[in-house]
């Protein structure tokens, strides 16, 4: 997944990461590949958080921040992605099937401010699963 971040234009301005060891292990190679350490916040409140709590946390992000990478846990992340997936049946089906470790759901919001992030203002633009990436 770190190589995927290197190859693409994904450059989060802020990283919110669960304090769990496994979440920080997921973050480490990505952060190293993109020099994200200064823009990373490790938060114990993300550990095991349900979708509603994750959405509430995202709504508190400062408006000057235009992109966030959220690293957490299922089922919360999967449920949040499903909540924000919009009406795209293909994406919703893929999200329901499985949201494996290190999967990346890219969510785009039509809103210019984080407090307005909701299923009405956002959609999942892409879903990247590690096993589908080139070796």
- The largest sheet has its strands arranged as 2-1-3
Choose one word for the global shape.
Answer: globular
Separation, N- and C-terminal Cα atoms = 10 Å
- Strand pairing plus helix content: what structural class? alpha/beta
Order of helices and strands: HEHEHEHHEE
Task: Give Rg in angstroms.
Answer: 14 Å
Protein architecture, described:
It is a single chain. Strand 1, helix 2 (21-34) and strand 2 (40-43) form a beta-alpha-beta unit. The model has no long low-confidence stretch (mean pLDDT 92). The chain contains five helices and five strands. 22% of the residues are buried. The protein has a three-stranded parallel beta sheet, with helices on one face. It has a single domain (2-130), classed as 3-Layer(aba) Sandwich (Rossmann fold), CATH 3.40.50.1240. It has 135 residues and is of the alpha/beta class. The chain has helices at 2-7, 21-34, 51-58, 76-84, 89-97; strands at 14-18, 40-43, 68-71, 104-109, 122-128.
What labels describe this entry?
135 residues; single chain; Rossmann fold; alpha/beta; three-stranded parallel β-sheet; 5 helices; two-stranded antiparallel sheet; 19% strand
């Amino acid at each position: 997944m770190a190589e995927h971040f290197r190859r693409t234009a994904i450059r989060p301005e802020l990283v919110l990461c669960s304090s769990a060891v496994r979440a920080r292990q997921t973050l480490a190679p990505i952060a190293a590949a993109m020099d994200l350490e200064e823009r990373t916040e490790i938060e114990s409140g993300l550990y095991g958080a349900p979708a509603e709590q994750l959405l509430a946390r995202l709504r508190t992000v400062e408006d000057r921040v235009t992109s966030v990478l959220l690293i957490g846990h299922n089922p919360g992340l999967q449920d949040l992605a499903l909540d924000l997936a919009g009406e795209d049946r293909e994406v919703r089906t893929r999200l329901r099937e499985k949201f494996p470790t290190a999967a990346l759901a890219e969510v785009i919001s039509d809103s210019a401010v984080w407090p307005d992030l909701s299923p009405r203002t956002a959609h999942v633009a892409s879903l990247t699963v590690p096993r589908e990436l080139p070796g």
